[in-house]
Specification:
The protein has 274 residues and is of the alpha/beta class. The protein has one domain: TIM Barrel (Alpha-Beta Barrel). 34% of the residues lie in helices and 16% in strands. The chain is built from seven helices and ten strands. The strands form two sheets. Strands 1, 2, 3, 4, 7, 8, 9 and 10 form an eight-stranded parallel beta sheet that branches. It has a two-stranded antiparallel ribbon with strand order 5-6. Strand 5 and strand 6 form a beta hairpin. The protein is globular, with a radius of gyration of 20 Å. It starts with 21 loop residues before the first strand and ends in a 13-residue tail after the last helix. Bound molecules: zinc ion (ZN). Zinc ion binds next to loops.
Length: 274
């Protein structure tokens, strides 16, 4: 008998809350005008909450009114640094603001400010999430990781690594959560990702930039079709990045605690030898 394996290893059903069999998170990077123009009304119509990784200060593209609008609609506001440091190899990176131009001190300061911006906009202390600009997790000329600085301040972080997480199969790294880029390939590809996540009882985190405008855009129609497909599926839990990460974290902590209790050699589990 020929057995074909799915691309993503399937986890046991029963992992997700309220009888849902898989999870989809809708994330939007960079605080773009098209999020307000297209994504927000579409999310409202579908009654879904998204996660918005926005920037502040010099590359602030949203006004305080815009931020209030996103927060009051119940969406998650989340961190993405302030100056959006990315590797110097990209020609659009401003001199002085490349990943290589940062040391720990500068990045720590910027993350502090970034976190404070979330808290000032209603995010609860200890729950703020983060997305690495350009998916780049290193700084300085020696390209060392700044993930420890993110861990000290944020609850979880989304990477730009391509893929679908299946936390039901074992612990995942909540500071390196995989994603599917919404601007890549066509609508059929995006809908196939939803099917793959469902098949695997997994967690699909969509990463959108522009929606019907701005950079790395998905068309407004395609974005609406993805939401429609999710609306039509009773088995999906559409959760913010924070909600889903909190669920996975508690499951992982429970599983780890159980494992600790079942350590061999303890009186209960020791094999009796006559
Ligand atoms: Zn970005």
């Amino acid at each position: 008998m020929l057995i074909s394996f799915p691309a993503v290893a399937t986890a046991q059903d029963g992992y997700w809350p309220e009888g849902k069999t898989f999870c989809v998170t809708l994330t939007y990077d960079d605080g773009l005008p098209s999020h307000l123009e297209h994504a927000l009304p579409q999310l409202k119509a579908a009654a879904f909450k998204g996660t918005f990784f926005w920037l502040g200060e010099e590359v602030h593209r949203w006004s305080q009114d815009d931020l209030d609008q996103v927060r009051e609609a119940g969406h998650e506001l989340a961190g993405h640094t302030i100056f959006h440091p990315c590797p110097r190899k990209f020609d659009w990176v401003k001199a002085g603001n490349a990943s290589e131009d940062y040391n720990d001190e500068r990045m720590a300061k910027e993350l502090d400010k970034n976190l404070a911006n979330q808290i000032n906009n209603g995010v609860e202390q200890g729950t703020a999430t983060f997305a690495y600009p350009c998916g780049c997790t290193y700084i300085d000329e020696d390209k060392h990781s700044y993930v420890p600085l993110v861990k000290e301040r944020f609850f979880a972080a989304r990477s730009t690594r391509n893929g679908i997480e299946v936390p039901g199969n074992g612990n995942i790294d909540l500071f390196d959560v995989k994603t599917i880029a919404g601007d890549q390939h066509d609508l059929a590809f995006q809908l196939a990702q939803v099917d793959a996540a469902k098949e695997a009882n997994g967690w699909l985190v969509f990463m959108f930039h522009g929606v019907g405008g701005d950079h790395l855009a998905i068309s407004a129609d395609d974005h609406r079709e993805i939401l429609r497909a999710l609306q039509e599926d009773d088995s999906v839990w559409v959760a913010t990045f924070q909600e889903a990460a909190a669920w996975v974290k508690s499951k992982q902590e429970n599983a780890n605690a159980k494992q600790d209790n079942a350590e061999p050699g303890t009186p209960d589990s020791a094999t009796k030898v006559k």
